[in-house]
Design a protein that fits this description.
By secondary structure, the chain is of the alpha+beta class. It has ten helices and twelve strands. The chain starts with a helix and ends in a 7-residue tail after the last helix.
Length: 297
């Protein structure tokens, strides 16, 4: 169950939404960790992400979190060896989707939400009418209100049909999530076993597993080092720069690697909504030291 749902399962979301953001996030933080959120002097990683949600993030971050608009931004960066999944169609309503116009394999998702990515690898087995209902429901979703990540309110919802990315494994491709602080990659979160129960491990830049994830969340085996890891690291760092200058002080940059071909996935500015519960406290303190809030004006 999503951690936010655990927290407010017995609280009407309108109550939290209508409170001042600082009050809402202090409540969420306390319910998650049974400790006080210090927004005046945030120290650990979760606290600093909470601070950025409440105090700093806005339209700039929304445009980069928009799964449709961000592709043009990334394309304009002209990063060598980086591929961007092709947008096949854009819809304002699921009723506009004509599956006959799409290739045999494709992906459908909303640009403003997390989760509910519909992967079609066989049209004959793809229940498009059922999926249309879910997509239209998601279009109406106020994601900012659902997760209290307020910058999402600036995203105009739409549905995108996207190129299908296939690593030939018959499973969901491995996610490589690069933590980039002030233009430098620090570690790589690898998410795997999504077809069973999401597992995760952090790796250093030499592809050694870091002992910073709680045992119950760790993968059952080490993930093979991806091809062109050094290139992926460089790409992740360049995605936080423009004309050689750092323009994104912190982002988790999500990439795919399909047999050596590197694809952009997304920017994440608020990992786990600033309520990460899968890491040791020492790890959250270490990450907090790396996130320099003075870079945000």
């Amino acid at each position: 169950m999503n951690i936010l749902r655990k927290i407010y399962i017995n609280v009407k979301s309108n109550i939290l939404w209508n409170l001042p953001p600082s009050v809402t996030h202090k409540y969420l933080y306390y319910k998650a960790f049974k400790s006080k959120l210090d927004l005046k002097n945030p120290k650990n990683f979760n606290e600093k992400i909470q601070y950025l949600i409440v105090k700093k993030y806005g339209k700039k971050e929304a445009n980069l979190a928009d799964k449709y608009l961000v592709k043009e931004y990334v394309k304009d960066l002209k990063i060598e060896n980086l591929n961007i999944p092709e947008t096949l169609k854009v819809y304002s309503n699921a009723s506009e989707i004509d599956i006959s116009e799409l290739p045999d394999k494709f992906v459908l998702k909303c640009n403003h939400a997390s989760g509910d990515v519909f992967i079609c690898d066989d049209k004959s087995k793809f229940d498009i009418e059922k999926i249309k209902k879910v997509l239209n429901k998601n279009l109406k979703l106020n994601y900012a209100k659902k997760t209290y990540e307020y910058h999402y309110k600036f995203i105009k919802p739409c549905i995108i049909a996207e190129e299908y990315l296939d690593d030939k494994s018959g499973k969901n491709p491995v996610d490589y999530k690069f933590y980039v602080f002030n233009g430098k990659c620090d570690r790589i979160l690898v998410c795997s076993e999504r077809d069973k129960d999401l597992r995760r491990d952090n790796y250093d830049l030499e592809w050694n597993i870091l002992n910073d994830i709680l045992p119950e969340y760790k993968a059952s085996k080490k993930i093979d080092k991806p091809k062109q890891l050094d290139t992926m690291i460089k790409i992740a760092e360049n995605l936080c720069k423009k004309d050689g200058n750092v323009v994104i002080p912190f982002a988790r940059v999500d990439l795919y690697n399909l047999d050596g071909k590197i694809y952009f996935s997304e920017y994440t500015f608020t990992p786990h909504c600033g309520l990460i519960n899968s890491c040791y406290e020492e790890t959250l303190n270490e990450l907090g030291e790396k996130l320099d809030l003075t870079k945000y004006c």
